[in-house]
Request: fold
Amino acid sequence: MPTDTDPPGLILFAHGARDPRWAGPFEAVADQVRAWQPRAQVRLAFLEFMSPTLVEAGADLAAAGCRQVAVLPLFLGTGGHVRKDLPQLMDALRQAHPQVQFSLHAAVGEMPAVTAAMAGVALELVAPQTPPLR
Reply:
């Protein structure tokens, strides 16, 4: 059972790519979360082409003493990978680490704050002097 002294865990789960530069924006997100919440244990994980995998990142967080781990898919929408592959990987995590509560969250691109941020960037392209709607 999690306690207040257990560090919170977060896995930022992305697709992965053959070009290591592709991971730059995701590393920046992880770094920002670490800066804002130094107590949190934050890991990137990838579906394919890059490491660590989701299962490896989950094992690392379990070893670090995390008893609650949020899994945030860094996908713009809920496609096949999020709908089919990710639940299977989550089952593997839960079986391998029954002492840890892994919670799967919606794809980040479907969250209102992300949609608003993307719309704000798009608005700047067509109306640079217009403040984004909030």
